[in-house]
Structure formats: C-alpha cells, structure tokens
Design a protein that fits this description.
Layout lengths: L5 H6 L4 H20 L2 H26 L3 H22 L5 E3 L2 E6 L5 E2 L1 H18 L10 H19 L4 H17 L4 H20 L5 H11 L8 H13 L12 H4 L11 H34 L3 H25 L17 H18 L7
Length: 372
C-alpha cells in the first residue's frame, strides 16, 4: 500500500485525542497555579504550558511518521530508554525525595528517564510480539519470554533508583501487551504473580527507601505514621471531600490555599480539582482522562497491523493504570506511590511522555492497515 501524503495523514487523523489532552493540560496549568499561588505559582504554570507546547509539537511530529518507520526504529528507541536509566544510576544522576531518578540539565531543566522509558518499552514490546508473524497466530513461547526479559531490564533498573510507581506502570503495560498479543493466559497469570512477588521483595529486602515503605504501610494503617504520610493522606481526603458538588472556586480552597497538602501540584493535583472544582469538575476531568484510554483501545481494535495494535494497547494500559493509581491514592483507595496524573500534574518529563503516547496512538491509527 503506498504511503499517504503528509497532508492526507493530518487530514485523516481524528483530533479528539489531541483536543482532550490539550484541554487537560490547560486545566492542569490552572490547578498548578492555584496549588502554588503567587510568583512561584505563575512561574510553574508557565513552565507547565511550555512543557505542553513542546509535548504537543512532538506528538504532531509523530502523526507524520509512518508506523513502519517507527517499527524499524524500535530497537534504538528502546536502547535509548535503557541508556537514560543507566545514566541516572551513575554519578551524573541526582536524588530527589529519596529516589535517584533525575538528570539535571543546563538551563535549570531536569529529566526523569523512567518516564521516557515507558515509550521505549511500549514500542519494544510491540516489535518483539508482532515481528514477522501472522496477526491471527499467537506468539511463540520464546517470543513471550523475550518480551518479559525486555521488560525486566528497565523494571530492574527503575527499582534500583528506587521508584516503585514507575516500575508498576511498566509491569502492568507489559501484562496488557502480552495478553493482547494472544499469548496463553498462563503467561498473564504468571506475570501478575511475578509483579506481586517483586513488590513483596522490594518491601522485604529492603530495596525501597524507608519513606517509600512508610507510604505503603501507612495505606493499611495511617496511625503508623501520624505526622508523616498518615497526616498527608488525611489532608488530601479532606480537600477532596470538602469541595462538594460545585467546589469552592479556583484559588479559594481552604486546604489548598492553606498549604496543608505537600506535593499538591504534582502527586496530589486531583485534590485541588476535588476541592476547588467540586465533584462535577473532577468528574469532567475523569471523563476526559477516560476518553483517552478508551480511544487508545478503540484504535487497537480497528488496527489490523499487529505492531500498531500492540502499541495502542500498551499506551491505553499505561494511562489507565497511572490514572487509577493517582486518583486512587488521592481518594485513599490506593497506596501513595508518587505517580503523576497524566497531563494535569506538574512535571516536564511526565508531560512529554504523555504527549508522545498520544502521538504513538495517532501514528498507530494512521498505520498501513487500519480498518477505516
């Protein structure tokens, strides 16, 4: 099938994904500003918008990329992700909040390689499980084993930082991609068991930083750390619950403006929405986030190209788990792991990774063999 022209590729792209992601990013800038009022808040909101602009530009570039070129570049993209994870564990890496997860760049910028490793793993898994096979034939056991080894390397490197939240995202997206490839259900069950065992091992060894262990244990019993994470989670739930149906108004939330919730512009941005936009506003944001996940899965269903289908599944699973975990920890339903809320939380690396994910879905949608 001949390649579509660049103009035709853009014309045939459904822009709902981009509109939803852009709307979330703009609301996120307002929430970041409200959570960090004053000169600092204005500066962070502007940087959030700059990150949005850069991410949107990269996503639009991906729309123009033929999915076959993306598949050819998959090994290099995966290796680039690994290189970033190795580099962050070297003397060049920087420790923030107990995790050696950051690279400080010139100009006051920083990069979290674990976020971009999600892109590399999605593409790498799709390449391994879709390469050179009939789309109706399940992958061989050695292909599935190779896929899990491919995932195990970045997961291991991220756990060494340690960053349990990002490791869980990689684990869950791998489970989804392997299952969607048609592999036997026993592989999925074994993977889920292995993920649970990895979490238990990280707690027992101990591999995690003490404050990260406290986060997990305080989820079960907040009284174990009443002045630390227990206090924090109570304040978050109070902020979410005090907004009522319509909220207190942007910049008017007592909990948010009183500074009672640490890391509110990053980990707990949803609590700002709950308090100041109310249940109606928070539900609207959840519907937009849910639309991104559903749209990615719809693209996977419509795409006959195995590589594009698995890429879309990987992105959908990644976003779904990260949304579920972040909103869950804001509501006290999940332990605090430090995962940002896609497009809404402040953070350049997360914003770029999420926009690249949108671009990947659009690229898969415009693949060489979609049922459209």
């Amino acid at each position: 099938m001949p390649s579509r022209g660049l103009g035709e590729r853009y014309a045939r792209t459904e822009w709902g994904l981009f509109v939803a992601a852009l709307g979330l990013s703009l609301v996120g800038a307002l929430l970041v500003w409200s959570a960090t009022r004053g000169e600092v808040g204005a500066a962070l909101a502007v940087r959030h918008l700059v990150n949005t602009a850069v991410g949107l530009t990269l996503a639009l570039v991906l729309v123009a990329v033929d999915v076959r070129w993306l598949r050819a570049a998959a090994p290099w993209i995966y290796l680039a992700g690994l290189a970033g994870l190795v580099l962050v564990l070297s003397p060049v890496g920087q420790t923030v909040n107990g995790s050696r997860s950051w690279l400080f760049l010139p100009g006051g910028f920083s990069l979290q390689p674990a976020e971009l490793a999600k892109i590399g793993l999605v593409i790498g898994l799709a390449m391994i499980l879709a390469e050179g096979r009939d789309p109706f034939r399940p992958p061989l056991w050695r292909d599935v084993l190779t896929a899990w080894l491919l995932a195990g390397v970045p997961v291991g490197l991220i756990l060494l930082q340690p960053d349990l939240g990002s490791a869980l995202v990689l684990g869950m997206l791998t489970v989804a991609v392997v299952a969607a490839s048609g592999a036997s259900m026993r592989w999925t069950l074994a993977a889920l068991g292995g993920t649970a065992a990895a979490v238990a091992t990280a707690l027992v060894v101990p591999l995690l930083d003490p404050y990260q262990v406290d986060r997990l244990l305080a989820f079960r019993d907040p009284s174990l750390d009443p002045q630390g994470i227990g206090y924090q989670t109570r304040q978050v739930r109070l902020a979410v619950g005090s907004g009522g149906w319509t909220g207190t108004g942007l910049g008017q939330g007592p909990q948010t403006q009183g500074g009672f919730v640490p890391f509110q512009h990053t980990d707990f941005i949803f609590s700002v929405a709950g308090e100041e936009l109310g249940y109606v506003g928070a539900l609207g944001l959840l519907l937009l986030l849910g639309f991104l996940v559903v749209r990615a899965l719809v693209v996977a269903l419509l795409c006959e190209d195995p590589f594009g289908r698995l890429v879309a599944v990987g992105v959908g699973a990644w976003l779904a788990f990260q949304i579920f975990e972040n909103v869950g920890m804001n509501l006290g339903l999940m332990p605090v792991t430090g995962l940002p809320l896609p497009f809404l939380s402040y953070g350049g690396s997360s914003m770029l990774a999420c926009w690249l994910a949108v671009g990947l879905v659009a690229c898969a949608e415009r693949g060489p063999a979609s049922r459209r």
